[in-house]
Amino acid sequence: MARGHKAQALFARLGSVCDGVVLKPTCAQGHARTLAAEAVAEGFSTVVAAGGDGTVNEVVNGLVDAADGGLQQARLGILPIGTVNVFARELGIPLNWQAALDVIRGDREVEVDVPYAEFQGAVGREKRSFIQLAGAGWDARTIELTTWEMKKKFGFLAYVFSGLKALGESGHQVTVRTANDSATGQLVLIGNGRYYAGSYPLFHRAANSDGLLDICIFDRFDWGTLPRYTLKFLTNQLFRPGAYTYFQAKEVTLSAATNAGLELEGELVGGLPAHFQMNPNRLRVVVA
């Protein structure tokens, strides 16, 4: 369970309405990963992430980390109380926590692919799974500039403020390579599902159980391109063919000549170069 006032209030409410449930609040970034792996070892068959996309990502990584096949032993439930909750929106999970709790009490599940990234971490190469989104270039720089305090104070607008600030900087050129294609751009996004930044269907050909990564490369992302990109986003219109490069691949590598960051599920995790591919096992998620 994530930290913050909303999470603490939910913690108190859940204690009064849930029987047979063990509540485990996190105390620091990355703690949910450890708690999820421990929950599998303790024999829990459903592990619920109460938080945003970053908390969900930590719990998924805990299930992947768990000994003796955590993805087979436990399924994921989601109580979406984060800032954007993209993965919950992707699967049609209610954003109201009480309605989401009713979903978790049900029996319906779907299986989704679990890609992972190997990237440059603080102390060397690291490996981390994700289930919705990865980004490099302008997107990762925006995430880097958005603090936890900003998100709590401004909500989604925190990303808008940081994104505008990032536009004022000289952008990184990120090179994308797959087995069959290559391209370079200032913004690179890798999706496992359709949605980006809420419910915008950027990855319109994606299916989170097809074994493929969907890669979008924008060669320019600056003040000149911002107005038309913003209009598309606000009106939920798809980009015209040729506005950006779109690949689908089982594996992809990102690199940059400069010190470009990498984000997974809205959290800055490290930098490039990074290599992406699929875990052999899928994740079971409780859905409506």
Give the number of domains: 2
The overall average pLDDT, rounded, is 92
Q: What is the subunit organization of this protein?
A: single chain
Largest sheet: 11 strands, antiparallel
Low-confidence stretches: none
CATH domain class of the largest domain: Mainly Beta
| Percent of residues in helices | 25-40%
Assign the CATH topology of the largest domain. Answer: Tumour Suppressor Smad4
Give me the number of helical elements.
10
- How many DSSP-defined strands? 15
Report the C-alpha radius of gyration, rounded.
18 Å
Return the string of H and E elements: HHEHHEHHEEEEHHHEEEEHEEEEE
Proportion of residues in β-strands: 25-35%
Structural category: alpha+beta
CATH architectural arrangement of the largest domain: Sandwich
How far do the termini sit from each other? 21 Å
Shape: globular
